[in-house]
Amino acid sequence: MTGTIIETRHELRGVSFKDKVLVCPGAKGSSGWSSVFHQARLAGAAPRAMIFNEMTTKIALGCVVMRVPSITDLEQDPLQLIETGDWVRVDADNGVIEVRKAVAKASGGTGS
Hints:
By secondary structure, the protein is of the alpha/beta class. It is built from three helices and five strands. Strand 4 (87-91) and strand 5 form a beta hairpin.
């Protein structure tokens, strides 16, 4: 309900998708998880948009109950294109996303 990823083996475990664009391959597991997405929306913890690879009834229901713009069937694999920290604009009405790559953090150094 907080929008925090809780899957134990997931690389983003503990990270919240609240107010972010959620990029995922699709949905897995039972259809019951869509009720958790609905509860996340009611709690104000839904993502701003969803981008995914595979349309299934599970992911479609998740998008509907969260009431967020959603896009699938892109020309490029969004999992290869978008990285954590990138800025993503979603225009679901026209099926367009814009990605602005995150600026690489400076490494060490004292600078002057």
